[in-house]
Amino acid sequence: MVSNTQSGVRGAQRRGARRRVAAALFAGALATTGLLVVTGGGAQGGPDPQPVPRADCGKGARPETDIQGRVPTSDYTSGRVDRGYRCNTRPVARHGESGGFKVLRYKDAKGQTCAFYDSTLLFPRDVLYNAGSGLGVVVLAMDNPRKPRQTATLTTPAMLSPHESLLLNKKRGLLAATLGTAATYPGVLDIYDIRTDCRHPRLFSSTPSGLLGHESGWAPDGRTFWTASTTGSLVAVDVMNPRAPKPVMVQPGVQYHGLRFSADGDTMYATNIGSPDLGGLDLAKNTGLDILDVSKVHDRVIGAMPTVLSKLTWPEASIPQSAEPFTQKGHDYVLEMDEYADVFSVKGFTDMGNAPVGAGRIINVDNPRKPFVVSRLRLEVHQPEVHGGEQATDPGASSPAQGYAGHYCSVPKRNNPRIAGCSMIVSGLRLFDISNVRKPREVAYFNKPVRPGSKPSIPNAEGAYAMSAPAWDRKRGSVWYTDANSGFYNIKLTNGVARLLRNK
């Protein structure tokens, strides 16, 4: 079945070649006129990048039955979906029935290991969905990773609805989030001490210092917490005294999403969601990655504002989510993931199934003024030849807030990581070997969809809903993530894949 489907995909690719060439020529014409900035390259560059090679599944696999990343309707009908899908992975533990956008791992001063995860996707929608388990950020004792034990639930304002802002700073042992939702909420900033006892975080402050909330970023030294609202504001908050945070910089009129930083804290990698062009020329949305000098803000120079060093776009962009920095063999990169499909494009408005899927990419940022795309992280299910076809009717695939697309990625360490993990919504958790940044390849996956109607209290609870940035247990060769439809998972990497977590 797989080989027949692959053959069909290749046939569709050949049939679409003429259309893609025309699209490339059109994009090139725009670039030469200055209407479109396109910087890309590498083995998978160009306007129609290809999926990474499939994982070679070893012992114990329950492989996908269709193209890479797809869970077809026929698997729900036959009951195959109930067994789940796994390749070079094995579930170790599960907790709860819901999940959100982040999973974080921390070891405190006592040597205790904890997991933190937000339990909601969208407030107040999830008030009813989580009626049984409760709202808030869940704290798990993970010293016995086979038996996660919930020790606390954080329910201060920001923790009830952190949206995508929940982050921790390991250097100072601080956990923080701003009150947010899909558009924005008043950015109440909550800061907790987790260094002393991660199992029972202690609230330092809950203040309106974030102004507006949605996404966020921590400066590496832990002295500045940044908040971003997609309605158009960027705020730097001085948290040197976490009991009395105060805004030190407010910039209106920018549509930034995730905010990540160079190791020295001087450079910010800000994903830019752009502004929807309802006039039809959605290629000119200014969507992509902005690289900014924020050194003066971090140095508390009075009146300092971020300085844009460069802007990078890519032809297949959807909604840039975050860009995680890492180094590889002496070079600086960011691993960027676009969330969802491009619902703001002309195709997105008229035919969600054919909306472009941005997925992921590795970007070289050695020279912050001249970044360039090195390679892409895509699955077969993301490709334009099939994205709007039969698979658009699969459970969960037709929703613009779900679907076959990406959401968050992470790496297990900043220096020379060899593996990356990405939550790709209906396709579940996907693991990639990034040892060769120019030729990433999939090495493992885990996906546990739910049947439509299996959770009658939750409308549209069907398929997988993997949205979270994964966390890593390098010592045990495991990765933690959440699925909004089924909870927190501790997943063991098997068949030699765990070696990618070890130091060379």
UniProtKB/TrEMBL annotation:
Residue ranges with Basic and acidic residues bias: 56-67
Spans annotated as Disordered: 41-82
InterPro entries assigned: Haem_d1_sf, WD40/YVTN_repeat-like_dom_sf
Gene3D superfamilies: YVTN repeat-like/Quinoprotein amine dehydrogenase
Highest taxon of the lineage: Bacteria
Record protein name field: Uncharacterized protein
